[in-house]
Design a protein that fits this description.
globular; alpha+beta; 7 strands; 4 helices; four-stranded antiparallel beta sheet; 131 residues; NE0471 N-terminal domain-like
Length: 131
């Protein structure tokens, strides 16, 4: 995808919730994703970061077992599909298409996506705390 490619969410800005971005933009030929939120902020995520932080059952299971889910640095976003009004599904250049990224989860990932922050790794204890 080219840097100018953008997808706006269906619906009018006046009816969008604060958790839903106004615009989703794939940048750097699929290397990163920018979300422009209704509150005026934006979030930037690299494709490898999103791939490593997938919430698919398989990825969660690996993290619970203490295994990393590293993504190649050259991985790219090839497609984005809306999942209702609460999330997106991201398809990556390695064919992986099982991760659903709810808006709330993407907001939680903002701090972890900062370049100075290491990629968060979940432990079994972290998962159990949330249940």
């Amino acid at each position: 995808m080219k840097q100018t490619d953008a997808a706006s969410l269906p619906g009018r800005a006046d009816v969008l919730s604060a958790e839903q971005p106004l615009e989703i933009r794939v940048l750097n030929e699929g290397g990163s994703l920018r979300l422009n939120w209704a509150d005026g902020t934006s979030s930037d995520f690299s494709a490898p970061f999103l791939r490593e932080n997938s919430q698919s059952a398989g990825s969660k299971k690996l993290r619970l077992m203490g295994l990393a889910t590293p993504a190649p640095e050259n991985i790219a976003i090839t497609n984005i599909k809306p999942i209702g009004s609460y999330a997106i599904n991201i398809v990556f250049s390695d064919g992986y298409d099982r991760g659903i990224y709810p808006w709330i989860y993407l907001r939680e990932l903002e701090d972890a996506a900062a370049p100075s922050s290491p990629t968060p790794r979940l432990s079994a204890a972290d998962f159990l705390k949330s249940n």
